[in-house]
Design brief:
The chain is α/β, with parallel strands linked by helices and 239 residues long. The chain has nine helices and nine strands. The protein binds S-adenosylmethionine. S-adenosylmethionine binds at residues 88-91, 113-115, 117-119, 133-135, 137-142, 145.
């Protein structure tokens, strides 16, 4: 899967993309992430990308020109039949594992990171295919939400976790929440690891894990066990 991220703050991505599973998935060729500096698509010599809002009020708004130019250049340089343009926005469709599974079906996502007061509304209406929010709170920019998408979608790429089983077991997968995990020592300050995990009896361990996963889901998020959950898709905001 490919990601093209359009941002006014490209340096923010260096850390998250160069560690752990996302880094390894990149090295294995399972994902490819390109970060595009929005200022490269400004047309004036001051590399201006934002301006004051029409109608007054505080803050700055990302101008449509550089954002349209960036998307057009990406599409020209990297043609793809299955790309989707996603605007990161607190007013978008709420992101969850079901939305992640849906978006993982696209070969490429072009992610537009807003900043300041946001982006010119014409970007949402005439450039983006959809808007995604990572939760009901307001962040300073779309960079962290873009990282959230890249990370969660990378985990869904076959081979990224080193085994399909790991992805299936993750919370919000086939059985609600993941089961509890324990590691050495078996006795930590008097706190014992459940006996069954030390038994070496694979069937008993599998049954225990399944029961504990269901118990944990029922206790913390019973809604995930209702018929149709967790694969129930939220409404998608098309533009
Ligand atoms: C400070 S926010 C703008 C908020 C906007 N004035 C509003 O109230 O809807 C700047 C940018 O951060 C990003 N952003 C903030 N919160 C987000 C969220 N919960 N999900 C996705 N993107 C978010 C968006 O790209 C947004 O354009």
């Amino acid at each position: 899967m490919e990601f093209d991220i359009i941002t006014a703050f490209p340096d923010m991505f260096a850390g998250p993309l160069s560690h752990s599973i996302v880094k390894r998935a990149g090295e294995k060729g399972l994902v490819r992430v390109r970060v595009h500096d929005l200022r490269e698509y400004a047309t004036d010599r001051h590399r201006k990308i934002d301006d004051v809002p029409y109608g007054g009020g505080g803050g700055m708004v990302l101008m449509p020109g550089p954002l349209f130019a960036a998307v057009e250049a990406i599409r020209e340089h990297h043609p793809s039949e299955s790309s989707r343009i996603v605007l990161l926005c607190p007013q978008g469709t709420r992101y969850d594992q079901e939305q992640a599974r849906r978006l993982s079906g696209f070969g490429r996502l072009i992610l537009i990171c807003g900043h300041y007061e946001g982006v010119d509304e014409r970007v949402r209406e005439h450039l983006a295919d959809e808007s995604i929010s990572i939760g009901d709170y307001v962040l300073t920019g779309g960079e962290i939400p873009a990282m959230v998408l890249v990370d969660s979608l990378t985990r869904l790429q076959p081979g990224a976790l080193g085994g399909e089983e790991a992805a299936r077991r993750d919370s919000f997968g086939e059985t609600g929440f993941d089961f509890p995990h324990y590691t050495r020592p078996a006795d930590f300050r008097g706190l014992q690891v459940p006996e069954v995990l030390l038994s070496g009896h694979h069937e008993l361990i599998a049954a225990w894990r399944k029961t504990r996963a269901l118990e944990s889901t029922a206790r913390k998020r019973p809604d995930l066990l209702k018929p149709g959950a967790p694969r129930k898709a939220g409404a998608i905001q098309e533009h």
